[in-house]
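Quick one, T. Sequence first:
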Amino acid sequence: MNEPVELSADDAAQIAAFARVGCAYDLLSTTSVERSIFADPDPQVVLGVYDGGLDAVAAGVVRGVRGWVKFLAVHPRTRRRGIGTALLDRLEVFCRERGATSVEIGNSAPYYVSPGVDVRTTESICFYEARGYRRYGEAVDMSIRLAGLPQPERPTHLAGRDDLDRLLTWVGKYHPNWIDELTRGVQLGSCVVHDDIGFACIDVNREGCFGPTATHPDPMADRRRPSGRTTRDHRTRRGEQGLQEE
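Structure tokens:
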């Protein structure tokens, strides 16, 4: 195996092209790679292995005392040669040297590629379990056909700075882990709101991916209950247009 080299944002397009063959269930655009991996402000390392072409990619990040394998994939033609093992070793060392006391797979919010190990990739699950990793939870990605969705039930609009300030008064209390993603959604122009009691974002980490979304947790306000569906419908329609353009 050739020695891994560090990759940068200049390699985002190459990583996206590699993902099409290296990880069939996590197809990434160049923009998705830039937003989910290289825009991350926390200590991280992104490694690549070349053997004629890009044959493997690995990314790890540390947030406080927790480390994450953000992304790890090997080209099908070079699997079972110890490349994935060597890259995981490098990521674990990186995390440990920067103060992490544990390492998790995938769910490195607020900058992440996937919420965990895809259950369809049996080979990956066996690989990590053989290394001592254990399952501790489940996260579910879902999809929907955008054609034919009903019209939004309540008025919505693209969120601006003033909307963000109002949303943060309760998002900071009830969903503090979403502050970063919500803020980026507003900055990207990919977040809509209904009044100041519900929001929905798309394209924040990965193009075409929906979330985060939330409504103000006030069960007594009947008028607020539909806002989650309302903002979702607005954002998914915009997402449909974007996907068609791509």
